[in-house]
Amino acid sequence: MLAFSGSIVLGLLATAGGLGYTYAKYSRLARVELGSVLTERATPSGPQNFLLVGVDSAANLDADDPARAGREDIGGLRSDTIMLLRVDPESARASLLSLPRDLWVPLASGGSNRINTAIEIGGPEDLIDTVEQYLGIPINHYVQVDFAGFRGLVSVIDGVKVWFDKPARDRRSGLSVEQPGCVKLDPAQALAYVRSRHYESFSNGGWRTDPTGDLGRISRQQDFIVRALRRAVDRGIRNPVTLDNLVDAALETVTVDDKLKGDDIVDLGRRFRSFSPDDLDLYTLPVEDDTIGGAAVLRLLDRPAQPVLDLFRGTDQATITPDGVRVKVLNGSGVPGQAGVARDALVAAGFTSAGTGEADSFEVGRTVVRYAAGQGQAADLVARYLTAGAVLEEVTSAIGADVVVITGADFAGVRSAPAPSTSSTTTVPTTSATSAPTSTTGSTTTTSVVGTVPRPPAGADC
After folding, report:
1. For residues 120 and 129, what is the distance between their CA atoms, to the nearest angstrom?
2. pLDDT for the residue numbered 262
3. Is the pTM of this model over 0.85?
4. Which of 65, 69, 326, 368 could form a disulfide with 61 if both were Cys (CB 3.0 to 4.6 A apart)?
5. Are β-strands 175-177 and 168-170 bridged in parallel, bridged antiparallel, or unpaired?
6. Contact (CB, 8 A) for 253 and 60
7. C-alpha atoms less than 13 angstroms from C-alpha of 9 in its C-beta half-sphere
8. What is the largest CA-CA distance in the chain?
9. Neighbouring C-alpha atoms within 13 Å toward the C-beta of 341
């Protein structure tokens, strides 16, 4: 993401140094020929998807660099981090989807394996084809950065601040935070933090491991991205001199596809020049644990994944509105009057009431939104209005409404406007299991968070 920021804001230099200067900078970007596998945009000014890949390569690091500790030299490329960034120039909206590296997929080159093996087997072409064929998401552009490039970009913005409420470590990635508080991670520690899959925190006299592995790492990475972009703005990224330094750092180690032209960069830079980091919509894929050949992998939950996949496919143009959804509310927490309070708030938001009642149990912890076949978009809309989000549950029996809300102990009211689609909900078919979110972010984009993500306390400047 930082690599992409370095290339996209290159367009801003056009206002300070002229188009000639901008194109001269662009000509220094390393490029890889991928035109034969990339998808052309439907319209020149329409939304486009960037495949962002952090490669597991220490090739540009010094021989004695700490990041090389315990590593074997490997040939070719390995994808350490895979993300999809969808940018819509017309609305100046940006959405980021993280793909778990252990996601089990059918490879475009043949056979099935973890998605992070695609680039090692068949290069960027195979990874692009795999994403397009399996997830149905068109890839318009490709951006790649390695360890040295990531650290260089963090260096330009003078580190990134993260609040640790406890000492933290990852002995495999090299993360070591001995004292809690607001810690400015230097380039080496920032790399160790975002690569951490075996994150530990010190509590009650011992080290406690985050058991969520790659999913917890994704949550920390997404939080880090927003913090890094805020830091870039604070350090003056919109100042031509600071921006020039960031671009120069990106030019050293960032690789882009051969179809990303200077005009594209200039146009995107201009349209996103006022973009706020807190407006970045963050998404993850619903998955479940599995074991194949004795190895732990993640399998995509197909039905729950469709709303977020549709967003990145560009097919999420539903026109459903609250006034077209009949909602029944059942009290599942036992809090007196909660069903009526929730019903009134939903009606105030525009939904139509189908009555209230009591659930079969008053021990519901996580609020549930039930829906019948064909009402998935209505359920998603209702859940996005709930402040604390909800678990979506499809049922086959009659429910007496389009959607039934079963309030849980986490019920915290109704929003005045919906959160971004699928960002505040976890969708779970009644026959499948998946990890429920443990907390939500404090930014304007409400995102389900899995695993341990260090957060500053209220009022802390970090």
Report:
1. 14
2. 74
3. no
4. 65
5. antiparallel
6. yes
7. 27
8. 69
9. 13
Q: How far is CA 275 from the centre of its chain?
A: 17
Strands of 352-358's sheet, edge to edge?
352-358, 326-331, 403-407, 368-371, 390-394, 425-427
Question: Tell me: the pLDDT tens digits for 355-375?
Answer: 999 999 999 999 999 987 667
The answer to whether 67 and 188 are in contact (CB under 8 A) is yes
Positions of E strands within 116-167: 141-145, 160-164
Specify the 3-state DSSP secondary structure of 97. Answer: strand
Burial of 352 (0-12, 13-18, 19+ CB in 10 A): middle
Distances (CA, A) of 239 to 10, 38, 161, 262: 12, 33, 21, 20
The predicted-structure confidence for 263-280, as pLDDT tens digits, reads as follows: 777 777 777 777 777 888
d(CA 133, CA 206): 45
Reported as a single tens digit per residue, the pLDDT across 75-103 is: 556 777 899 999 888 777 888 899 999 99
Whether 347 and 389 have beta carbons less than 8 Å apart is answered as no
Contact 142, 48 (CB under 8 A): no
Pairing, β 200-203 against β 168-170? antiparallel
Contact 380, 422 (CB under 8 A): yes
DSSP, collapsed to helix, strand or coil, labels residue 189 as helix
